[in-house]
Specification:
By secondary structure, the chain is mainly α. 80% of the residues lie in helices and 0% in strands.
Length: 65
């Protein structure tokens, strides 16, 4: 039973990592205007991973809101 739970948790973690990678890729592939719109949505929100990802993409492209 313990081995099954360990495998299930490992599979869940792998799916989470894959999903996060897909989200990061999607944000990075946005064109500049869409990225600015996306970043603007999270600009006033409290700190969040999506806000951080948008800010990092903006910084890499050397653009700002």
């Amino acid at each position: 039973m313990l081995k099954i739970r360990i495998k299930q948790k490992a599979a869940t973690a792998e799916r989470a990592v894959a999903l996060l990678a897909e989200i990061q890729t999607s944000i990075a592939s946005l064109n500049d205007e869409d990225l600015l719109d996306f970043a603007d949505i999270f600009a006033e929100a409290p700190a969040s991973p999506l806000k951080d990802m948008a800010a990092a993409a903006l910084k890499m492209r050397n653009i700002s809101l």
